[in-house]
Amino acid sequence: MDVETFRRYAHELVDWMADYARNVEDLPVLAKVSPGDILSRLAPSPPEQGEPFERIMADFDSIIMPGMTHWQSPNYFAYFNANNSFPSILAEMLTATLGAQCMSWITSPAATELEERVMEWLRDMIGLPREFVGVIQDSASTATLCSLLTAREKASGHAINRHGYSGERFTVYCSREAHSSIEKDVRIAGIGSQRLRRIALDNNYAMDPSALDAAVRRDMEEGYHPLAVVAALGTTGSTAIDPLDTIAAVCRRYGLWLHVDAAYAGTALVLPSMRWMLKGIEAVDSFVFNPHKWMFTNFDCSAYFVRDADALVNTFTLLPEYLKTRVDGSVKNYRDWGIQLGRRFRALKLWFVIREFGVQGLREAVSNHIRWAGEVADLIRPEPDFELMAPTPLATVCFRYHPEGVNDSSELEQLNQRLMDELNASGKIFLTHTRLDGKLTLRLVVGQTRQERRHVTAAWDAIRRTARKPAHS
Questions:
Q1: CA-CA distance, 446 to 236, in Å (whole number)?
Q2: How large is the average pLDDT for residues 13-42?
Q3: Which of 176, 234, 365, 449 could cross-link with 198 by S-S, CB 3.0 to 4.6 Å?
């Protein structure tokens, strides 16, 4: 493909992208395929000769698109969002064109220095103390792993990096509602699933600090070395907010590292009215949130902040001869700030988004999402056959259908599973579920970039109408 051919097809693809953005809400949100459908239509072996681009795009439209779930639909209410926006998409086009591998300052000085400045912007936008410094990771899972590895090396005097484990009996603590990635990270860090303590919850599904204190004391008495606590601002199931101030007091008392997983909820901190979630932040060691969830920035882009940058860098730095440069002592080489050596130019899309929206534009969008979710919660409360299953501090509504006279737990579970399945099969909306106190709970997550109040209202109307539809219809 020569430059002029590329130009022609690129213009056609931009038209395709704009048409998709305009029409995506009319597409079925959830892909209507069965396992193996796509695979069966893909050639079993690669072509010997190059194929025309028109044929490749025709196959994309006929084979790939029917198997896509449309995360950018305003009728998407599942999981947490993985949003994009027009400025982010445009920046990704530039990133792909530049094709830079931004592991060190010298490999693209602008990428390093833009990342440094954008992370300062983010820190200030969400109200973190100015002593925090930031780096972009690919996901909150990776950032939490970096945090645990840093805590491990700091506690061992970097002996584990040098010699491996030699009898350390570390333990890590999180709430019973914490994300599953924490257990995966504990495994990868060599601590082990059996030494991850899942702490009891309060009535709002947040970590109980008194139960945390008791667990730490019990482990110390039994000869373990309590290492770190992972607190959650916005648990995945119910978006519960762990109380940082009282958790931090426990960490200070016993010398534990405190990491905060705010992957979803961190974006809400652009609103000064939501900064109550940060009470106790002055005692936090590391903090992560994902602009690729609720800050309208294409996946992947995870903002990781640390108070002690030297501890992070000392955990990961390796400097073979082929990576040495004359400026190493005077610049940030972000390859040393995480697991990957190779790094994408992620800061560019975040820069575009912040500049195009402006801080006020981001606040307005997030505030709308929180308000619309609150309106749905307010509509559910008086309904005789629906119930809220958890508080709604952010923009996720946890509820279930509970008709009068139906109190058998198995029957209620079947009713709600059928309700979710029917809604998702309709293609009109996409919901997912969790379990709270063992009860199957439906989740409606407001927050897609181009969502409007009408989409949220229509979703609630569809839920109510479908739930109350006679069984024989």
A1: 14
A2: 95
A3: 176
Closest by CA position to 292, among listed 303, 301, 280: 301
Cβ within 8 Å of residue 203, ≥6 positions away: none
Distance CA 250, CA 209 (A): 7
Q: Which residue has the tokens 């440094």?
A: 116
The contacts of residue 175 (CB under 8 Å, 6+ apart) are 198, 199, 201, 205, 206, 207, 231, 232, 235, 240, 242
- Structure token pair of residue 443: 């989740």
Q: What integer pLDDT is reported at residue 472 of this predicted model?
A: 43
Q: What CATH number matches the domain at 1-30+69-84+358-473, 3.40.640.10, 3.90.1150.170, 3.30.240.20, 3.30.750.24?
A: 3.90.1150.170
Q: How far apart are CA 472 and CA 18, in angstroms?
A: 42
Residues 324, 340: Cα–Cα separation, whole Å: 17
Q: Do domains 1-30+69-84+358-473 and 100-344 have the same CATH topology?
A: no
Can you tell me the distance from the alpha carbon of 189 to that of 147, in angstroms, rounded to the nearest whole number?
Answer: 10
- Cα gap 373→191, rounded to integer Å: 39
> 391 Cβ partners below 8 Å, 6+ apart?
204, 238, 240
Q: What is the largest CA-CA distance in the chain?
A: 76
Residue matched to tokens 């490749």:
56
Query: CB pairs under 8 A, 24+ apart, for 182-190?
Result: 182/144, 182/230, 182/261, 184/141, 185/141, 185/144, 185/145, 185/148, 186/148, 188/145, 189/145, 189/148, 189/149, 189/152, 190/152, 190/160, 190/165
Whole-prediction pTM: 0.94
Mean of all residue pLDDT scores within the chain: 95
ω before 378 within 30° of 0 (cis)? no
H helices within 157-200, ranges in order? 159-163, 180-188
Among the residues of 222-255, which ranges form H helices? 244-254
Estimate to the nearest angstrom the gap between the alpha carbon of 171 and the chain centroid. Answer: 25
pLDDT at 167: 87
Sketch the domain layout of the chain as residue ranges. 1-30+69-84+358-473, 100-344
The yes or no reply on domain 100-344 and CATH 2.60.120.200 is no
